[in-house]
Amino acid sequence: MDLATLWFWIVAFLFVGYFVLDGFDFGVGMSLPFLGRDDTDRRVLINTIGPVWDLNETWVIVAGAALFASFPEWYATLFSGFYLALLLILLALIARGVSFEYRHKRPDSKWKAWFDGMIVVGSAVPALLWGVAFANIVAGVPLDADHNFTGNLFTLLNPYALLGGLTTLLLFFTHGVVFASLKTDGELRERARRLATRSGLITIVVAASFLLWTGLAFGTLWFWIFAAVAAFALIGGWLMNLRGSEGIAFTLLAVTVATAVLALFSALFPDVMPASNDPANSLTIENASSTEYTLTVMTWVAVFTLPIVLLYQGWTYWVFRKRVTRSSIEAAAH
Description:
Shape: globular
Largest sheet: 2 strands, antiparallel
EC number: 1.10.3.-
Enzyme class: oxidoreductase
Pfam family, one: Cyt_bd_oxida_II
GO biological process, one term: aerobic electron transport chain
Membrane topology: Multi-pass membrane protein
Radius of gyration: 20 Å
């Protein structure tokens, strides 16, 4: 395996980490109107991701930096062509982060309701648009001979891409609700489990439709292998949630997200940005990558830094592994 191919899969790994970790963050944020019957419930839900949400978001920064350094042509085409969608994602993430920090600054209910709404929107918009973006990357977009995107926002809002966005939206929502049931107790835990059961059924149908469409149009052997694992993990996660085994359900849904992302990268390989209008204009691993020297330096940096990042992330989750209860929230208020 040459270094350019290696870095294609390293970028894939970084996006897997981002979607698995920030994905359930998005789901918890979107669940506030469905699970939060009062302010204490909403504080419990927010506190389940409070210690980790900002750490989870750093994965997309690292993924973007790795993409820029290893595949500058891919980065340039992607960020110039998808700039409006990516700008909306950025604004949503900013609004979401600000809301986590400011909702508790005043006791006024309208103040909190305003920021709760921003959390919901700031979670739903990225969950939808990331799916739209990656579906378009796999399907291909119109590019000229200089690899410039020649479409517009409406080019990206095609039926296949919208189905991809709906898939990530529902998958992240269900993953987040299962996480909420894993991290809470009592009535809130039971409500989360029941909601995950209902949303999980819809997610299975929509995700199966998207993976089948992708496979029939762009599938490779490795795509079908990863897609099959994702499908079995999703169904298994739904069944484990039905039985009340939240830990296993959450793990299986994490496997679902990870293998679904790998399936999309497998369908994309060896292209990085296919041209839908003329295959000759496509960006590939070969013509979009950095020099051998750059990739060599990046590889050594990754060898030494990536294990440290993974160990720190694992330690953080271990420290904050306990459930968040209503009694702890109510006690902290006095």
